[in-house]
Design brief:
The structure holds two protein chains of two kinds. Chain A is an alpha+beta fold. In chain A, 15% of the residues lie in helices and 51% in strands. Chain A has a single domain, classed as Porin. Chain A starts with a helix and ends with a strand. About 5% of the residues of chain B have low confidence.
Chain lengths: 401, 132
């Protein structure tokens, strides 16, 4: 992860400069942080609940791994125009450890007229709550619904963006144009998403009602040796085209989403509709959610209904199963791969947020996940396919400082 | 649990005292009056036109001010600001210890806006909005 180190050095240099400036002209360096101590348990044997990409998760015995995390953010202001932000985040990651990673490290310049440019490692706007999805305290729900947020594991990009904030016909709007690339480990396999370009638009339609639309596309590469071997083997058969459909090397991929969020009086609510597409074996999916909550004093009970559907495997497995053993084996291997990528599921979640103290929220969430006969987003660690909906119980304490 | 209950009871009691007081939004003597919406936007991070200043977030006046100016409880205010901070978009208002510190700060900066009890107003500051 050379880029990570490079960014760390860059951002530390920027922040050192910022803090020197701060010492000279007043306290312009701010430290803030957030964290979650969370525990999760499922009720079926041999499967694990994980956040997308994690190497291990929660099974029948409770685990702190899926949700627990700690983030620290440094904001340094050079002057009214220039500032820099560094955010470090430690959580159980796709490389199988909890080492703090550089989540963000960017320099920002306000250009005037509502325009801002940023460069460095920047939060990627795939979703309605992309930027603060890791900040449990900032969200009503215990975690973002996997049926939507499990489609994309990337949370940032290395590059630059242009932001606009202003009024259009009396409606407060924001616009973001971005270009960049990112690499992140998914269960110890690096996935690159390069040549990214994206746009993200928000409009506050009425007080507390925000509409959001976004699209990001780029070139996806899965650095998987098993995938490359399979493509290679298929290339030596008359069914090389199947391998070509699987091959995920610099293939076009995109993610598009539209959402609406509401915060009015004691009501909170949100809905999102999202689509993932690729030109390789990463399946095309649709994910949506509807969430509603109502605040009674310091308690906010809420419900979330969500669904993730695989629309297209992107691979037509036309390898015959009755010609010879080799071809049959290949056909079954491709079938197995497609089966492991069948992430269709539907979830109903009920939870409550308790604002226990000024900067502390305690949450409990119960989920019932219909895996539609497969493992879906649960990882198979030697258990049978769940015949009944999987029940997931989670407790979390979120804090900010 | 007992300590928390006591704290909660104490803060409710204090909040009750504070909400009985009138709170005013104050600024530099040369500053223009503000509407309640403008004040809410400033203190919830939606507008950067002026520099808002807070009282200590543990003080009863803090809770009473946000309830009156924005209609939000402390936890909602904290949650709103955590979204602003952890999107890299801004920083919450600096917290000052008391009305005297607020008056001193806004008298020295034409862009600064704070809030104090009405009874603490003097000639060094201008009332930009009365909340009651």
């Amino acid at each position: 992860m050379r880029t990570t180190h490079g960014l760390t050095v860059l951002s530390l240099t920027l922040l050192a400069a910022a803090s020197q400036q701060a010492l000279a002209s007043g306290p312009d360096l701010r430290v803030s942080g957030f964290g979650t101590v969370g525990v999760v348990q499922v009720d079926k044997p041999g499967i694990e609940f994980r956040q997308v990409g994690q190497t291990s998760g929660a099974g029948e015995s409770a685990s702190f791994k899926p949700d627990s995390r700690l983030g620290v953010q440094l904001d340094g202001s050079f002057n009214p125009m220039f500032s820099a932000t560094l955010q470090l985040l430690a959580k159980h990651n796709g490389e199988g450890n909890e080492k703090p990673g550089v989540e963000w490290a960017f320099a920002k310049a306000k250009l005037g007229g509502g325009f801002t440019v940023r460069a460095g490692r920047i939060g990627a706007p795939y979703f309605a709550v992309s930027d603060f999805r890791e900040v449990g305290y900032a969200n009503t729900w215990l975690r973002t619904p996997s049926d939507v947020y499990g489609q994309v594991m990337f949370r940032s990009f290395d590059g630059a963006d242009l932001l606009y904030a202003g009024d259009v016909a009396g409606v407060p709007v924001t616009a973001q144009l971005l270009a960049g690339k990112t690499t992140l480990a998914y269960e110890r396999t690096d996935i690159d998403f390069k040549n990214q370009v994206g746009v993200n638009l928000t409009a506050e339609l009425a007080d507390g009602v925000t509409l959001r639309m976004g699209h990001i596309n780029g070139k996806l590469t899965v650095q998987s040796t098993t995938m490359k071997q399979l493509v290679g083997v298929l290339g030596a058969t008359p069914f090389a085209s199947v391998g070509q459909q699987i091959d995920c090397t610099a293939r076009k991929a995109s993610f598009t989403g539209v959402g609406l969020s509401l915060e009015k009086g004691n009501w909170v609510g949100s809905t999102e509709y999202t689509q993932r597409k690729s030109d390789c074996y990463v399946p095309d999916t649709t994910g949506w959610h509807v969430m509603a909550g109502y605040r009674f004093g310091s308690f906010t009970p809420y419900a979330v209904v969500s669904e993730l559907r695989r629309n297209d495997t992107n691979v037509v497995n036309n390898i015959p199963r009755n010609v010879n053993v080799q071809l049959t084996t290949l056909a079954l291997t491709v079938d197995g791969l497609m089966d492991s990528l069948n992430i269709t599921q539907a979830t109903t979640a009920l939870g409550v947020r308790w604002d226990a103290y000024r900067n502390v929220a305690v949450k409990a969430q119960y989920e019932r996940v219909d895996t539609k006969g497969g493992y879906s987003l649960f990882r198979n660690v030697g258990g049978p396919r769940p015949a009944d909906p999987v029940q997931v119980l989670s407790l979390a304490v979120d804090f900010i400082f | 649990m007992n300590i928390r209950t006591l704290l909660a009871a104490a803060s409710f009691a204090l909040a009750g005292v504070a909400s009985a007081q009138d709170i005013v939004v104050v600024g530099h003597p040369s500053a223009a009056a503000l509407s309640k919406d403008q004040v809410a936007d400033l203190f919830l991070g939606k507008s950067q036109a002026l520099t808002p200043l807070d009282l200590n977030d543990g003080s009863p006046l803090y809770a009473a001010f946000y309830r009156k100016a924005t209609g939000r409880e402390v936890a909602q205010v904290k949650s709103t600001w955590s979204r602003v901070v952890f999107t890299g978009k801004g920083q919450p208002p600096k917290q000052l210890p008391d009305a005297a510190a607020v008056k001193k700060a806004v008298a020295a900066d034409p862009k600064a806006v704070g809030y104090i009890e009405k009874s603490a107003v003097d000639g060094s500051v201008k009332v930009l909005l009365a909340l009651d």
